[in-house]
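User: structure tokens for this one?
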Amino acid sequence: MLHLKIITLLLISAPFSVADDWKETKSQEGNFKAQMPSESRYQANEIETELGKIKIHMFIATSDSGNEAYMLMYNDYPDELFKTKTIDQILADAADGAVENVKGKLQSESKVTHAKFPGKDLEATATADDQVTYISWRLLLVKNRMYQIGCVGVGKKVPAETIKKMKESFELLR
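Assistant:
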């Protein structure tokens, strides 16, 4: 499960400024490609979960202002998880965890499908130091791999057109 506290930290400490032109982010290992509003950088983190250590692969870009972050992430769940939980339960747990990890408040949630795979779209807000963070998140479960497409705005929402383009540009490679 992703610890979204990392995202807030990345927004605050982003050491670079990027242009607002769209760039393709592609991962052969992750089996996807998608458009992001600017050039992304890759990082991976291992987190401890009730399932053991899970490696999260993240592609992160920020706006020129540093007030927006765009993320494409994926992680693989162990096969044992699917013996004890349904796909709906896994998606619900991931959605709940995403909101809880930022001490946020869920604004809306809906089921989605992408290339016949199940998922969830979430809209949430979180407040820290009197600053509202707006979170738009898509979770997609493809076999045992969870993909996450996220747009985060600090102090203002990421434009709806940007969110839509990121989500709709996401493609599995094979």
